[in-house]
Amino acid sequence: MPRLTARDYKSKQRRPLEFLSRLRGFGYGALSGVVVTSLTFVYFGAAVHKAPEAADTPRPDPHRAARAEPEGPGAGAGRASDKYDFYEMLPNFEVVVPEKDKDVKRDLPAAARIERPGVYVLQAGSYRNEADADRVRAQLALQGVDARVQRVAVDNDVWHRVRIGPITSLDELNRVRRQLRAAEVDALVIRVGD
Q1: Which of 13, 98, 101, 164 has the maximal Cβ count within 10 Å?
Q2: Whole-angstrom Cα distance, residue 173 to residue 118?
């Protein structure tokens, strides 16, 4: 005869899985983080964008402003300097632009042919540093173009201009311009003595 064994059919208490408990803890942490972030955003966002109270800023009286105009030509000079102080601040915001971009290749526009006879000078550059001007003059000499460096004082600054010419022949002028364009040198055409 088969032997019967005693079996307990009562449901056993299951232990929660460790993974679910960790997931639940992460969920509570994320939820609390979202709540704290939202409350902080609402509190500080409202404080930043809050309009000033009407009592803090007095409204200007239009009748009073019309009567407060300066009485003499020099009467308002003291107030104008207080009002416009950006003239003193602008020199502090000076931006230095480099003389030459090293990695940029630029396409020079097609040079229009000069048709008007006269005496012309081509200016290949103007530099504060004499060594830079001499370097450009040497590069032009390697291209077969005879150039000279002219020293000029403009507004108490000394500039060194790299000039080619004077050129009286239109054919010669246009030939030199084509040669400079092939060497990627942008030259300014100056008509001398109208």
Answers
A1: 164
A2: 10
Q: Which domain holds residue 143?
A: 119-192
**Burial category of 181 from C-beta neighbours within 10 Å (exposed 0-12, middle 13-18, buried 19 and up):** middle
Of the spans 23-27, 32-36, 43-47, 140-144, which averages the highest pLDDT?
32-36
Q: Does 154 fall in a domain?
A: yes
Which tokens in the block code for residue 118?
């006269």
Could you say which DSSP state residue 109 is in? P
CA–CA separation, 191 and 122 (whole Å): 9
CA dist 183 and 194 (Å) reads 30
Residues 109-156: tens digit of each pLDDT: 555 566 667 777 888 888 888 888 888 888 888 888 888 888 888 888
164 within a domain of the structure (yes/no): yes
Question: Minimal CA–CA distance to 191: which of 138, 114, 132, 124?
Answer: 114
Specify if 174 maps to a domain.
yes
Q: What pTM was computed for the model? A: 0.40
Dihedral pair phi/psi, residue 134, rounded to 5°: -70, -35
3-state secondary structure of 3: coil
Q: Domain total for the chain?
A: 2
Q: Is residue 44 part of a domain?
A: yes
* Burial of residue 114 (number of CB atoms within 10 Å: 0-12, 13-18, 19+): middle
